[in-house]
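Interim report to the steering committee. The following record documents the input for Solute carrier family 22 member 21 (439 residues).
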Amino acid sequence: MSNPKLSTIEDIYDQIGGLGRFQFAVIFFVGGLKYLVGWSMMLMSYAGYIGDYVCITDLEMDHTMLTNISASGQTVKGSALNVCSVNGTACNDFKFLGSKRTAISEWHLVCDRRWLKATITSIQLAGLIPGSILGGLSGDYIGRRYTAYGSLLLHVILNVISAYSVTWQMFVVMRFLLGAIMGALLIMSVPYPCEFLPTRWRHVLPAIPFWPTGVISFAVVAWWLEDWSLIQHGCAIASAVMLLGYFIIPESPRWLATQGRIEDSYKVLEKMARINGKALPHSAMDVVRKIAEEEKANAKKKQYTYGDVFKRKRSCFITFVFSFQWNMLAIIYYGISFGVNSFVGNLYINVFLMNVVQVFGYFFTAVVINKIGRRVTNTFLMTAALMISLVCVCLQVAASEPTRGRWISGLCQLASVINVANWAASQVWITESYPTVIR
């Protein structure tokens, strides 16, 4: 039997098992980086929880009496619940009630420090910007593997250091650095595993619900431990386990070929074929050489940079459209996720349920995106999210308090499902909208 004609590295993947055991390992250890980022990102939805606290104006007051104060707002011996002053006297200290240990209770981020809650979350999200840019550049220059697992190692270290923050200023700095690392991990979590997958299976990767699974784990651990510091230790342990992937998942064979490392690229293909129980076609080396030669020829002509995204009218237009879309998706997702502690009901159950139902959003995208297309899927989901948002606005303005709280909480849960389904579909659409050199 003659060897089939191979022209691309994707043809080789089809011949050595397609979606086989090796690809499943890649999806778990590399695609699973989103699981860890979801856990780490949502820390502030717990750490930023503001529970009941007592304003203390008399420092000699017996604190053991405060644990019996209910949420009625009554004053006891110069102290009151959830206020910043008593009879015109500012609080000297605060006593937080209940078992939850959060960043709010740790550093008394209430009253004149209340603004720090939103600021810390914003600073964490701001860290994603330099992290994603540097992560993308690092992935191109030193490789996907070193970037992904180097970032993961830093994620372990920074989570441990952050867990021992002694001041809120230190905590803020650590959240920014962790945000940057999360940006790098997110950038690597899609292209790195995709470069091991046959073309026809790549649309499935963004639809695998790693993120909500990570947030579900976070909710369970938060309910169990009720301590922001221990939750960060848990995230560090989970990240350390995923570091085992460094010893299992090799560098991208395509990236190795573009760097002129032909023998290394071929060895990776041999490993993939061996794990999948297939024979590597003899012509695979010719394909690897072809990729290396094409990259060498392109390097002589032009070096591509981020500026090339804006040089052509079409690429500039689609970049603007997708950037606007992703900004809206991020505002909706993080607005709901970090505001979940304001929902009616139990904090842990709300976080858990919100992410359980999000799994169905991922499955919806995986099923319909190839049947009705990328554009139709995105348009339908964005329209649905718009309708729900308008209903929430109407309820906020017109509905009475008991009805408003229940309905808005429920509609926000539904909006989060549609939002993640839209984001998964958008990842596929945007990846296919750019040429390879810019992608």
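The first helix runs from residue 9 to 15. The committee is asked to note this result when reviewing the revised timeline.
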